[in-house]
Amino acid sequence: MQTAEQDLPLLEWCAGKGHLGRLYHFAHKVPVQSVEIQPQLVAEGQQLAQQFGLDIKLAELDVLSERAADYLHKEQHAVALHACGGLHQALIKHGVAKGTKLMSISPCCYHLFQQSEQYEAMSEIAKQSQVAFTASDLKLALQETVTSGKRISRLRETETVWRLAFDCLLDDVLEKDSYLPVPSAKKALFSGEFSDFCTWAAKQKYITLPEQINYAAYLAQGKLRRQITQRIELVRHGFRRLIELWLVLDRVLYLEQFGYRVTLSEFCEKQITPRNILIQAKA
Fold first, then answer.
1. 198 contacts: CB under 8 Å, gap ≥ 6
2. Is 86 within 8 Å of 63 (Cβ atoms)?
3. CB-CB contact of 108 with 275 (8 Å)
4. pTM (2 decimals)?
């Protein structure tokens, strides 16, 4: 992350254990203040900083609370790596209010921590747009996985097919015509047999299954339904990056409203993370 003012103290937003803050401190030898909501991560991060004698402080903070603004200052470089939705929006708004000299933000999970089901634009230009996004639209921008290993990808595909196949089974058992969602399950369950998954899923929904079931036939139906949904998703996913860029540009325009000079870049290959957009704003 190259900036023109690397001597500024760093504020690490939604820091976890402060890994990014430590890396930045090693590279630029500046004081670091990291904030994180989970006390266990704060304690572990502070222990790591003390272990190496680093000028790093970690504080427990809900960045959506009123006191979050107290951590923003003018002479500061505020950084948020993959802070979700409303969390990085809070940083932008507080930073603008305090005139924070430099902000580097990589947005993520745009649908989280929003106040309503309808996306509320940040910039005046975006507010005037006829484009309107629901929470479901915002989730679409994130539906790309390129970092999972082959095993995880295979289990995820098996889970999708099995859930669709189980729904086909319920169509006959319950004589229903709408999808019945089933709770999350441990990945280990999808390394077993489809029949075992059906037994587990039926138990979760308090459904009694017939004693004689042609599991192979329903599994074949699930695979066919999966092929159909994949074709439908091809059309929807063509808008995935476009939606994300619209949301990112809304943030850029908001920052420019308040006099910031803003640049956009990709800080890594998408094979490392598809959320690779970096907003850098300089007052």
1. 166, 169, 209, 213, 215
2. no
3. yes
4. 0.74
Residue 227 and residue 204 in contact, taking contact as beta carbons nearer than 8 Å: no
Tens of pLDDT, residue by residue over 139-165, are 887 766 555 567 877 888 999 999 999
Can you tell me whether residue 279 is helix, strand or coil? strand
H/E element, 108: strand 102-108
Residue with tokens 């809900």: 62
DSSP 117-186: SB---SSHHHHTSS---BHHHHHHTT----SS-HHHHHHHHHHHHHHHHHHHHHHHHS---S--------
Within 13 Å and on the Cβ side, how many CA atoms surround 192? 13
Distance between CA 78 and CA 103 in Å, rounded?
5
Copy the structure tokens of residue 136. 């479901």
Residue with tokens 């006191």: 67
The predicted-structure confidence for 58-106, as pLDDT tens digits, reads as follows: 999 999 999 999 999 999 999 999 999 999 999 999 999 999 999 999 9
Q: What is the pLDDT of residue 128?
A: 96
Q: Is residue 34 within 8 Å of residue 45, measured between CB atoms?
A: yes
CA distance 163 to 180: 10
SS3 call for 74 = coil
SS3 content of the chain, % helix, strand, coil (to 5): 45, 15, 40
Which residues face 261 on adjacent strands? 282
- Helices (H), strands (E): how many in the chain? 9, 7
Q: 101: alpha, beta or left, given left = phi > 0 and alpha = psi -120 to 50?
A: alpha
Q: Please check whether residue 208 is in contact with residue 111, taking contact to mean a CB–CB distance below 8 angstroms.
A: no
